[in-house]
Specification:
By secondary structure, this protein is an alpha/beta fold. It folds into 2 domains: about 100 residues, Elongation Factor Tu (Ef-tu), domain 3, CATH 2.40.30; about 120 residues, Nucleotide-binding domain of ferredoxin-NADP reductase (FNR) module (Rossmann fold). It contains 7 helices and 16 strands. Strand 12, helix 6 and strand 13 form a beta-alpha-beta unit. The structure holds flavin-adenine dinucleotide and FE2/S2 (inorganic) cluster. FE2/S2 (inorganic) cluster binds next to loops.
Length: about 270
């Protein structure tokens, strides 16, 4: 795990209240894998005191193919993310990672389907590249694991859809849904998924009601489904227990720390409220 001050190389707006920040941190970029996350903290301030968790969006390679930067895509929701756009290129951020575990192994199916709601698309770009064999992570050489990756991506309205071009460029089949019908199909993204019929393994990230609906679709189709949880976190490294999720065990259920045991969990093992 690396904890360092990283220079902001680029900071661009992708959509309404949504930005991508590129951080120069070669050791972290070389080690991190899809599904893992970093804690970002504003330097030189105690307000907010604690860092905030953000998924790996992508790694950036130099001309020789060596990972040198990581990209994070974030939605402005509160104290820290409201200040983050002010950290322009040339300034720096404190970054700690890689944290958590990579996505669970999906095997080598013909197709893998991601289902994202809100800002839940962020962990999927790197995972798509890994599964399609166009990028290796954590020191591994690229290895193709599937022929097709689909992203079902639901947003409230068109102006919030962020990074769709990045997914297209990575060779991902993108299916959009919106609450108001301003982009893609009107309705919930899980309804769009269900209307297209049974797929192979599912991977979800987004608001809990969406993940619960996805878990029900996966159970009905009897296909493997993992979900990446975005539980609020204080420490990110297993100390505070602020991030727990209920997981079934042979004796009933137990709390698991999302920062250490996740953030991805088998949807069939989670206890949904
Ligand atoms: C593993 C992981 C990966 C994440 N990846 C991303 C990412 O790639 N991009 C991104 O934009 N966000 C991501 N998040 C969510 C992100 O951490 C929060 O949006 C961020 O902490 C908000 O910080 P803030 O200081 O701006 O908001 P705060 O001031 O701390 O909170 C503002 C409001 O948002 C609520 N809130 C804060 N965090 C969450 C949360 N996680 N879920 C639901 N409500 C919350 C608070 O209760 C409050 O109402 C991720 C979370 C986790 C756990
Ligand atoms: S955030 Fe502290 S234990 Fe997970």
């Amino acid at each position: 795990m690396f904890h360092r001050t990283a220079r902001v190389i680029e900071h661009v707006r992708l959509a309404e209240r949504t930005h991508r920040v590129r951080l120069e941190c070669p050791e972290l970029a070389a080690a991190i894998r899809p599904g893992q996350f970093v804690m970002l903290r504003l330097p030189g301030t105690t307000d907010p005191l604690l860092g905030r968790p953000f998924a790996l969006y992508d790694t950036v390679l130099d001309a020789s193919g060596t990972p040198v930067c990581i990209d994070v895509v974030y939605l402005v929701v509160g104290k820290m993310t409201a200040r983050l756009p002010g950290v322009e290129a040339g300034k720096s951020l404190e970054v700690c990672g890689p944290l958590g575990k990579p996505f669970l192994d999906v095997g080598t199916p013909e197709r893998v389907t991601f289902v994202a709601g809100g800002i839940g698309q962020t962990p999927f770009l790197a995972f798509a590249r890994e599964l399609l064999g166009t990028r290796g992570f954590g020191g591994d050489a690229p290895r193709k694991r599937t022929e097709k990756v689909s992203l079902y991506y639901g947003v409230r309205t068109a102006s919030l859809a962020a990074g769709v071009e990045d997914f297209h460029a990575a060779g991902v089949d993108v299916q959009l849904a919106s609450d108001d019908g301003s982009i893609g199909t009107k309705g919930f993204v899980t309804q769009l998924l269900a209307s297209h019929g049974k797929t192979g393994p599912l991977v979800g990230c987004g608001p809990e009601p969406m993940l619960h609906a996805l878990a029900k679709v996966a159970a009905a189709w009897q296909v493997p489904c993992q979900v990446s949880l975005e539980t609020p976190m204080a420490c990110g490294v297993g100390i505070c227990f602020s991030c727990v999720a209920k997981v079934t065990t042979p004796d009933g259920w137990d709390y698991k720390r999302v920062c250490m045991d996740g953030p991805a969990f088998d949807a069939a093992q989670l206890v949904w409220n």
